[in-house]
Amino acid sequence: MAELHEVSDVSGSERVYRHLRREIIEGRYGPGERIVESRVASSLAMSRTPVREAVRRLETEGLIISTHNRGAQVRPLTESDVADLYEARARLEGFMSELAAQRAEPDDVAAIHDAADEFDRVVEEVDHGSVEGLRAILRANDRFHAALVRAGRADQVFRILATAVDMPLVFTAFKLYSHDELRRSSMFHRLIAEAVETRQPERAGRLMTEHVLQGRDAHMRRFREPEVEPASA
């Protein structure tokens, strides 16, 4: 995602939306923290109107909630909320992986393998402790999962899945992962790619379910061991 000064060709509302979305995903606005429209507008040298429009858009995505007493705030998540979101995502992506193993064409398989290779390369080359490194890991991860979803050719299921993938949780999971855990994610990508290529839908589904729940486990550690902090970024 481009920085604000790199996206002058989009509307003010779009620029604010991209800025706030990144701030929320990367944890600079934490769960439950208020989004003060006047403060955001001042920091970006804009009026409050595009800020208000961006906040409404983020509300529709579920990243922000508005209440009568506190106004707009980043949606807070309990331990149970996190577990439920990961469970829903694991089941949906597991199903999409099964469909991919049944429906993937040769070009799809090649794209999935290429994305798995890129993720592996990024994990080994970037600084996991930096925000730029985490962004690169997130982009490579998105590419793999997107290639798999496209191979499943189920647009209606994809629309449901899109609401279940919580990007702040994904980004935070990568912050919490050790290098060995990132390598484990890479291993899952390769195994899933192989299962799709060899037409093993049940195996592909099981592997994806376990892969997604790896992120849940990282968050559960954080809830149960508060002293565990994400890598600095």
Mean pLDDT across the residues is 89
**Count of individual beta strands:** 2
- Shape-level CATH architecture of the largest domain: Up-down Bundle
Task: Give the overall shape, derived from the CA principal axes.
Answer: globular
Strand order of the largest sheet: 1-2
How many independent structural domains? Answer: 2
**Main sheet: strands, sense, barrel:** 2 strands, antiparallel
What is the C-level CATH assignment of the largest domain? Mainly Alpha
Poorly predicted spans: 1-9, 228-233
Mind telling me the C-alpha Rg?
19 Å
Portion in beta strands: under 5%
Q: Count of helical segments?
A: 10
Q: Provide the CATH superfamily of the largest domain.
A: GntR ligand-binding domain-like
Can you tell me the CATH topology of the largest domain? Four Helix Bundle (Hemerythrin (Met), subunit A)
Distance between the amino and carboxyl termini: 17 Å
- In sequence order, what are the helices and strands, one letter per element? HHHEEHHHHHHH
Helix- and strand-based class? mainly alpha
Query: Fraction of residues in helices?
Result: over 70%
